[in-house]
Each structure stands twice: as structure tokens, then as C-alpha cells.
Give the backbone structure.
Amino acid sequence: MSRLIKFIPLVLFILLVLSLFSFLDKGQGELKSVLLDKDFPDFSLTKLSSKEIVTKDNLVELPSLLNVWATWCIACRVEHPFLMKLKKESTISIYGLNYKDNGVKAINLLNQIGDPYEFSIFDQEGKLAIDLGVYGAPETFLIDRKGVIRVRHVGVLTPEVWEEKFKKVLDYLDE
């Protein structure tokens, strides 16, 4: 009997490890957003390039993408060439959300590497990002013609992600 008691902690440990492993593949790495299929949140911030106040009513080219980016974000630089390609080859408008950044550095960067955005919203304190549930940069949202968020992607926007997540929804919305 005393020999069996010695093995109880080991058995409990193995059961704990097995139960934790069962949670690993749940959700398949997808971050859900409570804003999916809901209206884009109200906001009042300035444009990055000027002190002009913008609200969600200024997001007039719908459907559109809202891309969360910053100069400190290395992954944002990785996705930048694809955003430039989208601007050139696609009919969808792209708005930027410059997140917790230095405005002067952000303007200088866009002047150097190209600006894929209709305009960028300057969210220095992260207020709109919080309302959107942003975890960090980059993140991209698809907003439909009615101002409803249809897709959220956390991470680098690539041609593969575009085809798999965004283009399918856009094609469906166009039907």
C-alpha cells in the first residue's frame, strides 16, 4: 500500500500534463474578435499627415482594409511591399492606423518606402486600437460597404493570407 502512495503524485502529474496537451490544438491559432460582424467603432483622432480630425465617417471608400502599423514594427516592414502591390493592383482602399508611434518618424518612413494608405489615422495613445481589440502590429481588418468588420487578421498580410481570408470574403460580398 505504501508503494502505491508513492506513485500518486506521478499519476496526478501525468494526468495534468495530458489534460493541458488536450488544449493545445483548440482554436487553431485564430484570435477571435468580438467585433466581427459588428459596426466599426466610433473614433475621433487626427490624420498622421495633418492635424485634421477624422472619424469613421471619413472611411468613405468601402469596402476597405484598415491596417495597423508602426515604425517600430519589423513585421510591418515585411508586409509593406504586399500592401503597395495591393494599392497598385486592387480596387480596395487601404487605410492605416499608426499605432503608438512617433508621428514624425512614421511620416518619414512612408515618404521613404511608399505610402499604400488613403490616409493613416494617428493613434498615439492606442485608443482606437483598444476599441478594435488590437494585440499589436500588424493587424488588418476588412470593413464591408456598410461599415461592418468582416475579417480580422493578426500578423503579416501575405498573398496567401489575402487569398485565403480576405479575397474569399470580398468575392462573397460582391455577389
Notes: The helical segments are 2-22, 74-89, 103-113, 127-132, 159-174. The chain has five helices and seven strands. Confidence is low (pLDDT under 50) at residues 25-29. The longest helix spans residues 2-22.
